[in-house]
Design a protein that fits this description.
This protein is an alpha/beta fold. It has four helices and five strands. A five-stranded mixed beta sheet has the order 3-2-1-4-5. β1, α2 and β2 form a beta-alpha-beta unit. α2 packs parallel to α4. The protein is globular. It starts with a helix and ends with a helix.
């Protein structure tokens, strides 16, 4: 009977150690922005975000713009631009309103908000750390 508590305490320490190491491990955080580039205002928002990102290092791997328009537009910039011609990303992340920002941690959506002025400011804070 005394072996059971010893085994349990060993298991508890094992799981606690695994939990702490998982917490301290770096998470893969990304920002995914769904837009419809047929809307000029949404194009301007992405261009403004791109201008902000030009001064930041290592953000290209963290910011993705997914275009849901029927035809993709040419885009050059600091963000990763993807035309979702087959609806793969739209079906996977299920944006509720376009334009929408989805914060993703380890490929799971964690937070969603509209890309209005408040949403743009929040994306800027995520990118700049300010």
């Amino acid at each position: 009977m005394k072996k059971i508590p010893a085994i349990l305490s060993t298991l508890v320490f094992f799981f606690l150690g695994a939990s702490f190491s998982a917490i301290s491990a770096e998470v893969d955080k990304k920002v995914i922005i769904f837009i419809n580039s047929d809307d000029v205002q949404q194009q301007e928002q992405v261009n403004e975000l791109n201008t902000l990102l030009m001064t930041k290092n290592n953000v290209k791997q963290k910011i993705f713009v997914i275009d849901t328009a029927i035809e993709g537009k040419p885009f050059l910039g600091e963000v990763n631009y993807l035309h979702d011609s087959y609806g793969y990303y739209t079906n996977f992340f299920l944006p509720q309103i376009i334009p929408e920002v989805i914060e993703v941690i380890d490929d799971f959506p964690m937070d969603r908000y509209h890309l209005d002025r408040h949403g743009f400011d929040k994306v800027s804070q995520l990118v700049t750390g300010k």
